[in-house]
Amino acid sequence: MDDYRNKVEEAVTFLRDRLREQPGIGVILGTGLGGIAQTLEEIAAFPYTSIPHYPASTVKSHAGKLILGRLGGKTALVMQGRLHLYEGYSAREIAFPIRVMARLGVKTLVISNAAGGLNPHFFAGDLMLITDHINLTGHNPLIGPNVDEWGERFPGMTEPYDRRLRQLAAEVALAEKIPLHPGVYAGVTGPSLETAAETRFIRAMGADAVGMSTLMEVITAVHMKLKILAFSAITNVNLADAYEATTLEAIIAAAEAAGPKLARIMTRTIEQL
């Protein structure tokens, strides 16, 4: 763990020496949602590969760039592209950028992802406000020795998604006349998509959407005592009894179409923080 901690601190030092402003907000942009970065007033940008020990994104539509900019009038550190378990990264490696953000002064983390809808009332292109999650990955970034300076050994997960931020986002969506469904997100490893039987099982557990990201980041952020707000762009609807195949291209296209709506909600919400 000392080696991992040292690597985090080396990345923090590299960025701190180059950031002209201290970010208070962190943002993670998921599959097909990287275009939201275009709404930023960019101050500086760093390819992941230029930051010491920072894992590089390998997925199509993930630019792999860390951007310092202003979003909603606030200084934000934005990940344009994220990391996934299915890329071969460990939970601890996926946690790395969140550790770095927190050590740089980020207090609020806003997360977006692309997800398959399980709720029969959802449609492709809808937005979901994540109220809770179910971790079906079998992974946890907190396994191993704990760094007490970062967080407690057994952090509670009673309410990982901040109640005040969720209420604020819901009010913004209502004012903007953008439907925003509250729902539970189920996280799986991927990269294979779910079978009809798996879809039926996950829905029966109480999930409204399913995806392959977000949970390692959320658990880490809870450990680092960050406030969390998270959204899913519903890219397709998985109804077990009327199952239809989809493709990565279709998923990216649906997420990109939902991007402008999500950008408006995120920006307006951040304005009020």
Tag the structure with descriptive keywords:
single chain; alpha/beta; 273 residues
Walk me through the structure.
This protein has a single domain (2-271), classed as Rossmann fold, CATH 3.40.50.1580. The protein is globular and about 55 Å long. It has a five-stranded mixed barrel with strand order 5-8-7-6-9. The mean pLDDT is 94. With 273 residues, it is of the alpha/beta class. The two termini are 34 Å apart. It contains six helices and nine strands, in the order αββββαββαβαβαβα. The chain is 30% helix and 25% strand. The protein has helices at 2-16, 91-103, 163-175, 196-204, 215-223, 248-271, and strands spanning 25-29, 41-47, 65-71, 74-80, 108-117, 127-135, 180-187, 209-211, 227-237.
SSE topology:
Elements: H1 2-16, E1 25-29, E2 41-47, E3 65-71, E4 74-80, H2 91-103, E5 108-117, E6 127-135, H3 163-175, E7 180-187, H4 196-204, E8 209-211, H5 215-223, E9 227-237, H6 248-271
Parallel strand pairs: 1-4, 1-5, 5-9, 6-7, 7-8
Antiparallel strand pairs: 2-3, 3-4, 5-8, 6-9
Helix pairs in contact: 1-2, 2-5, 3-6
Task: Provide the gyration radius in Å.
Answer: 17 Å
CATH topology-level fold name: Rossmann fold
> What is the averaged pLDDT score?
94
Strand order of the largest sheet: 5-8-7-6-9
SSE pattern, N- to C-terminal: HEEEEHEEHEHEHEH
What oligomeric state best describes the polypeptide chains here?
single chain
Helix content: 25-40%
**Unreliable sequence segments:** none
